[in-house]
Design brief:
- The complex is a heterodimer of chains A (256) and B (275).
- Chain A is mainly α.
- Among the domains of chain A are: 45 residues, no CATH class; 73 residues, no CATH class.
- Chain A has 12 helices and 2 strands; from the N terminus they run ααααααααααββαα.
- In chain A, helix 3 packs across helix 4.
- With 275 residues, chain B is of the alpha+beta class.
- Chain B folds into 2 domains: 56 residues, no CATH class; 161 residues, Alpha-Beta Plaits (2-Layer Sandwich), CATH 3.30.70.20.
- Chain B has 8 helices and 11 strands.
- In chain B, a hairpin with a 6-residue loop joins strand 7 and strand 8.
- The interface between A and B is large, with 57 and 72 residues.
Chain lengths: 256, 275
C-alpha cells in the first residue's frame, strides 16, 4: 500500500456515505413540516389551524348585550340558566350581522318536550309532563312564556313531579298514606323545589308511631288476630339500624 | 476495553513505520466522524430553521399556555338527557348530520334488578329517547353524556404513526387535519370510542373541547347550551375555576381508570355501571 493515497474503495465508500447523509438531511428538510417538534412530536402550526375554526354559537353574554330586556326577564325565571341558543339555535352570524341573519324562534310543540317530556331516566324533581296527555295539540307558548315559564296552576299533587315514587307507593301497603304523613313540604317547595326541600323522618321512633303502638296480636271476640298494622318492638327489632336501612318506606313489603 | 486499547496501540506502532492509515484506524475515524458530522449538520440546520420559524408561527400572537390544563366535569344527577349538547356540537363543529358521526353523545343507562345494564343512544340522543317500558324490573335509570376524555396519557396519541394527533400544551388532545393519513389506528386505540373518520375530510375527527372557542375565552358549545349545567368546563390549574367546586363537593369517578389513561373528563355522582 502506498503512502499518502486514499485507497479507491475508501473513496467510493466515502462518496456513498456522503450521498446518504446529504440525502437524509435533504429529505428531512423537505418532508418534515417547519414547525414539527416545536412543542412535541407534532406540527405546532396545527394548533393555530384548529384555533382558526369558525365560531357558530355566540354565547349568552353576546345575546344579553342587545336583548337586555329579555335577558332581565329571563334571569328571574326558572330558565335563567338556559342559554338563549338552546332554543334559538346558533347565533354567532346574527351577532355579527343582525339584519341579515335571523336566529330561529321555534313556536311549535316539538322543542319543549325534548327537556320536559316525562322520562323515568330524568332526575327526580325536574318538571316533566306527559306530552300526549298535556293539552294535546296546543302550543306550549299559549300558556307558558318560555323566557319566564311559570306554571299557570302549580300542580297540587306530589305525583306530578315524583311520579315513580307515587307509582310505587300506589301498589304498596302504604298506598293510603298521604305524602304529608311522613314529609313536611314548605309552601315554596312546589315553586322552588331545589331550594325549599321537604323534610324526611330521622328517627326509628317516627315509624314506631304506627308500628310500635301496641301488641302484635290482639284478641277479638276470644280469637287472636294479627294487628292490621304490623307491630314490632323497636329496640329488639332494629337494634342500631334505622328502619329505612332495610325497608323502603314507599314500598315497605319489598324483599330486600 | 483493554483488548481494544492494546490493539489500538499496536496499530499506532505500525503506523509510525508505514505512515499509512490502517483499516482499523479508518473505521475508528468513520465511527467518530459520521455521527459527529450528522449531529453538527442537523443542529446547525434546525437552529437556523427554528429561529426563522419563530416569526412565522407567532401569527396569532397566542402561544399555547402550558400553565392551563383544560378539563370537564359532568354531573350525572343533573343531566336530563335532552341531547342539546350533541346537537350543538354537530352545529358548532360541522359534524356530518348522520347518527354514525358524533363527537359527543348522550347515553341512557337502564339498570335492571337482574342482568346486564341496557345502554342506548339513538342518534346520539339528539331526537330524544324512545319510551322505556316502566315495569318493576328497573333498578335505576339515568343519562350519561360522553365525549373524548382528553386523557393525560392518551393511547390515541401513542399509536399515531405520523404525529398527526397530539396533546396540546394546554392538555387538549387534537388532530392535525392536514397531517393525518386516515389509518384509523387511533380509532382502534381509543377505549372510549370517541373518534370517527370524517366522511368528507377522510381524516380522524374528535372532540376538541371546542379549542377555537376556549382559546377565545368562550365555553365549549356543549357547555354553553347545557340547560341544567350538568356539564362544567374549566381550568384544573386555576383554583377559582368552576370545575374545582364540582370536583370538591361530589363523588368523582373517571371512565376506565384501570387503563391508566388519566382522563380529564370527570363524572360526578356516576353509578359504578358507567364506563
Amino acid at each position: 500500500m502506498k503512502t499518502g493515497k486514499v485507497p479507491q474503495q475508501v473513496v467510493v465508500l466515502g462518496v456513498i456515505f456522503v450521498i446518504i447523509i446529504v440525502g437524509f438531511v435533504a429529505m428531512r428538510w423537505f418532508f418534515v413540516p417547519a414547525t414539527f417538534g416545536k412543542y412535541g412530536h407534532y406540527r405546532a402550526a396545527a394548533l393555530d389551524e384548529v384555533r382558526q375554526q369558525e365560531v357558530v354559537f355566540a354565547g349568552a353574554k353576546a345575546c344579553a348585550d342587545c336583548h337586555d330586556d329579555i335577558y332581565k326577564n329571563k334571569s328571574r325565571g326558572f330558565h335563567r340558566n338556559v342559554s338563549c341558543e338552546v332554543c334559538h339555535g346558533p347565533a354567532a352570524a346574527h351577532a355579527e350581522d343582525p339584519s341579515s341573519h335571523r336566529p330561529e324562534a321555534p313556536r311549535q310543540r316539538g322543542l319543549c318536550p325534548l327537556c320536559h317530556n316525562y322520562s323515568p331516566s330524568r332526575p327526580t324533581g325536574f318538571p316533566q309532563i306527559i306530552t300526549v296527555q298535556h293539552n294535546p295539540g296546543k302550543a306550549c307558548m299559549s300558556c307558558h312564556n318560555p323566557h319566564n315559564p311559570v306554571t299557570p296552576q302549580p300542580p297540587k299533587e306530589c305525583s306530578a313531579c315524583h311520579r315513580s315514587i307515587a307509582n310505587q307507593k300506589m301498589v304498596s301497603h302504604h298506598a293510603s298514606l298521604e305524602c304529608t304523613t311522613c314529609h313536611e313540604a314548605g309552601k315554596d317547595h312546589i315553586n322552588n323545589p331545589r331550594f325549599s326541600r321537604v323534610s324526611k323522618p330521622t328517627t326509628n321512633e317516627f315509624c314506631g308511631k304506627c308500628h310500635a303502638s301496641g301488641d302484635a296480636v290482639k284478641t277479638v271476640k276470644g280469637m287472636k288476630v294479627m294487628q292490621a298494622v304490623p307491630q314490632i318492638d323497636i329496640e329488639a327489632h332494629a337494634g342500631r339500624y334505622l328502619c329505612w336501612d332495610c325497608h323502603y318506606p314507599h314500598y315497605p313489603e319489598a324483599k330486600p | 476495553m483493554s483488548i481494544d486499547n492494546n490493539n489500538c496501540s499496536d496499530e499506532a506502532n505500525d503506523r509510525k513505520h508505514k505512515k499509512d492509515v490502517g483499516r482499523r484506524q479508518f473505521l475508528d475515524w468513520c465511527f467518530k466522524a459520521v455521527p459527529a458530522g450528522i449531529t453538527l449538520f442537523t443542529f446547525g440546520l434546525s437552529s437556523k430553521r427554528s429561529s426563522g420559524e419563530d416569526t412565522k408561527t407567532s401569527n396569532n400572537g397566542k402561544a399555547p399556555n402550558s400553565e392551563v390544563s383544560y378539563a370537564m366535569a359532568v354531573d350525572i344527577k343533573k343531566c336530563i338527557g335532552c341531547g342539546r349538547c350533541a346537537a350543538a356540537c354537530k352545529k358548532e363543529n360541522k359534524v356530518p348530520d348522520s347518527p354514525y358521526y358524533v363527537r359527543t353523545w348522550v347515553e341512557r343507562y337502564v339498570i335492571p334488578k337482574k342482568g346486564e345494564p341496557m345502554i342506548d343512544s339513538p342518534n346520539a340522543g339528539i331526537d330524544g329517547f324512545p319510551d322505556q317500558p316502566e315495569n318493576g324490573d328497573v333498578l335505576k335509570t339515568f343519562f350519561v353524556p360522553k365525549l373524548c376524555n382528553h386523557c393525560d396519557n392518551p393511547p390515541c396519541v401513542q399509536v399515531c404513526p405520523v404525529g398527526a394527533t397530539f396533546k396540546s400544551p394546554d392538555g387538549v388532545v387534537l388532530v392535525d387535519d392536514s397531517y393525518c393519513v386516515g389509518c384509523r389506528y387511533c380509532i382502534q386505540a381509543c377505549p372510549y370510542g370517541a373518534r370517527y373518520i370524517h366522511p368528507e375530510k377522510r381524516v380522524a375527527d374528535k372532540c376538541t373541547f371546542c379549542y377555537h372557542r376556549i382559546s377565545k375565552g368562550l365555553a365549549p358549545a356543549c357547555v354553553e347550551v347545557c340547560p341544567t349545567q350538568a356539564r362544567v368546563f374549566g381550568d384544573l390549574k386555576k383554583l377559582s375555576s368552576p370545575i374545582h367546586r364540582i370536583l370538591q363537593f361530589n363523588a368523582i369517578k373517571t371512565l376506565k381508570p384501570e387503563l391508566n389513561t388519566r382522563p380529564k373528563v370527570f363524572y360526578a355522582n356516576a353509578d359504578q355501571e358507567v364506563r
